[in-house]
Amino acid sequence: MATQFFKKRTWLWVLVLLIFIGISYVNVSQQPQEYPPYLSESPSPTGVKAIYTYLADEYASVSEWTHEPSFLAKNDEQQLLIMVEPQYVPPEREMVEYREFVEAGNTILLFSESSVEMFGVTREEQFFFENEEGTIQSEVGEEYTGMISSAIRFQPENEEDVLLSDDLGAKAVKRSLGEGEIIIANSPQWLTNGVILDNDHAALVLSLIDEGWQGQEILFDNYIHGGEPPTVATLYPQWFLIIILQGGLLTLVWLWFKGKRFGPIVVPREESVRFSDEGIKALAAWYLRAKHSRFHESLEIQIDYVKLLMQEQWRIPYDKNWHEIAEQIEKKSTMSKTDIDAFSTGLTNVLHQKIITKKEYVDWSKRIDRLRKEVEER
């Protein structure tokens, strides 16, 4: 009866966990995904998926770039790298890689307000009415209508061409760097999904892209929008991680109900100390505390143990006295006949004494122990 109740309770826990997994999956799947601004795969109003999709349909080869700039081509592949409002100004090490990419014969098209000085272009700020519409002129005198959302204007130098401008100054410039070119525009908002179809924004953006495109691959740099190494949270969808976590909890609950326990293996103390030095030390301490009354007995036990060892190791009979086995010990041991006779005579005299002093006991215990070690080692 108790077993049936236990099984029912286990299945109840399993059912509760499965319901919780289902509810979590539904809640996570219904939550809208959040994207950082200016990301090429972002369908939100601040993303640039619309222009990215259009370019992918109309141009030969368009793809996302998510790696460090050190992996960019360092030869003349005539690639166009589009960078839209980086989240941060890249460190000098990465800027060197971008410059080498351009110097090899490729082009970078940068749309930015906050990072326009990445490639050393001089800028100035003008007074203007925010988000007003204005007339924008191209290099050849064509006029466009667009949103004027930036106070930044460029101060072109001799080697720079003005591609777009308005009444306040240059809005897009181009400069040569090695075998390639860098184009910088101050209006990244033109590319966003929310305003790309307003006014002439699409035409303005496409004119700059055509200025830098050389018929080869177009890359959208997504690395500048968060190029940190991938983590578990970014590699797998959130619903999958929740299922894995709850599956682990379910496994632990199942193991707990099955009676499994985790931890180190505990060895009973008596298994490790029964025949170890600890027992010998305890016995020796007991004999020392007993003083003279146990010295005879202790020496007899020690010598009896040595005679048993000699019988096992050297085949010397146990029941014979020390004088009878002296010749056999001499053949097996490193001790001389004189030493063996002195050992036998001295031990016999000590064992016949009524009182053995502590000094005599310790001295003979050491001599017997030396003989024991010799028997064990040989």
Q: At CATH's second level, what is the architecture of the largest domain?
A: 3-Layer(aba) Sandwich
Oligomer: single chain
**Estimated radius of gyration:** 46 Å
Kindly give the count of domains.
Answer: 3
Strand order of the largest sheet: 1-11-2-3-10-9-8-5-6
The major β-sheet equals: 9 strands, mixed
Structural class: alpha/beta
Taking pLDDT < 50 over at least 5 consecutive residues as the criterion, the unreliable ranges are none
Helical coverage, percent range: 40-55%
Distance between the termini: 67 Å
CATH topology of the largest domain: Rossmann fold
- Global geometry: elongated
Number of helices, counting only DSSP H or I runs of 4 residues or more:
12
Order of helices and strands: HHEEHEEEEEEEEHEHHHHHHHH
Average pLDDT level: 80
Question: So what's the CATH class of the largest domain?
Answer: Alpha Beta
Please count the beta strands (DSSP E, at least 2 residues each).
Answer: 11
Proportion of residues in β-strands: 15-25%
Description:
With 378 residues, this protein is of the alpha/beta class. It folds into three domains: 55 residues; 177 residues, Rossmann fold; 107 residues, no CATH class. It contains twelve helices and eleven strands. The strands form two sheets. A nine-stranded mixed sheet has the order 1-11-2-3-10-9-8-5-6, sandwiched between helices. Strands 4-7 form a two-stranded antiparallel ribbon. Helix 1 packs antiparallel against helix 6 and helix 10 crosses helix 11. It is elongated. The two termini are 67 Å apart. The model has no long low-confidence stretch (mean pLDDT 80).
